[in-house]
Amino acid sequence: MTSPRRILITGANGTLGHATAQYFLERDPECHVFLGVRERRDRAETLTSQFAGRAHLCPLEITDAESWNSAIAQIESTSGLLSVLINNAGYHDDSLLATMTQVQWSGVLDANLNAVFLGCQTALNPMMKQRWGRIINIASLSALHSPAGQTNYAAAKAGVIGLTQSLAKETARLGITVNAICPGHIEGALPATWTEEQIKAVKRETPMRRFARPAEIAAVVFFLASSEASYMTGAALKLDGALV
Ligand SMILES: NC(=O)c1ccc[n+]([C@@H]2O[C@H](COP(=O)([O-])OP(=O)(O)OC[C@H]3O[C@@H](n4cnc5c(N)ncnc54)[C@H](OP(=O)(O)O)[C@@H]3O)[C@@H](O)[C@H]2O)c1
Prior knowledge:
This protein starts with 5 loop residues before the first strand and ends in a 5-residue tail after the last strand. It has helices spanning 15-27, 42-50, 65-78, 102-130, 151-171, 196-205, 214-224, and strands spanning 6-9, 32-37, 55-59, 84-87, 133-138, 176-183, 236-239. It is an alpha/beta fold and 244 residues long. The chain is globular, with a radius of gyration of 17 Å. A seven-stranded parallel beta sheet has the order 3-2-1-4-5-6-7, sandwiched between helices. Helix 1 (15-27) packs across helix 7, helix 3 (65-78) runs parallel beside helix 4 (102-130) and helix 4 (102-130) runs parallel beside helix 5 (151-171). The protein has one domain (6-238): Rossmann fold, CATH 3.40.50. The structure holds NADP nicotinamide-adenine-dinucleotide phosphate (NAP). NADP nicotinamide-adenine-dinucleotide phosphate is lined by residues 10-11, 13-17, 38-40, 60-63, 88-91, 111, 138, 140, 183, 185-186, 189.
């Protein structure tokens, strides 16, 4: 491994992205974390003040190849070659397929799947130069256990798992591992439309009777990004409190 690790987290102002960035910054005093931000940046800015010199804002529109090139160039000129990519940014826009617009379909596929292709392709060059790299793709339980109303999101996240497994084979001898994580519901990031009653009902269905804390997902990402996780590649890990 090249030290210090240079880590890019997309969607780093969001619930999971922010928690993951904080987890790395607190536990690895050497690492540099590049916080991919698009519109909102308040939480990311808090980290840049708290960890001045090691946490950096990195403007990134994940659906745009040029934006990826600029982000990689910024990382290289600030601290060196990218070594860890966490494709975390994404969103859902739920609707029954019968009434789903093409904009809903394409938007979700672009941000959740096509952007992962762009990110992986851009990251491979610096990782191949180091003969070391870690790519962690945040998929979703919806990829494995697809609910009604999420044909676009479920297809995109299932695509992320396929991409992960295929790319892992292409990079297996280059020191680059590629894994996916499939979280169930995350505390603090539930669908805005859910009522208190719905939240209680979903918790009752979950054998652990609670949702994941963002730091519990971040801990698995942290392990996958380590040197110790060297034989784990092409995996899709379900983190759902035994929901399915
Ligand atoms: N929440 C859950 O229960 C759950 C469960 C399973 C999987 N996941 C997955 O986990 C990941 C993080 O989810 P979260 O709940 O933390 O989401 P969140 O709080 O809504 O954050 C999502 C982040 O993605 C960014 N983003 C979206 N589209 C983008 C684009 N085109 N370019 C650049 N940035 C973009 C957003 O930036 P802006 O500020 O610019 O909007 C935001 O920072 C997502 O991939 C999600 O699908 C979440």
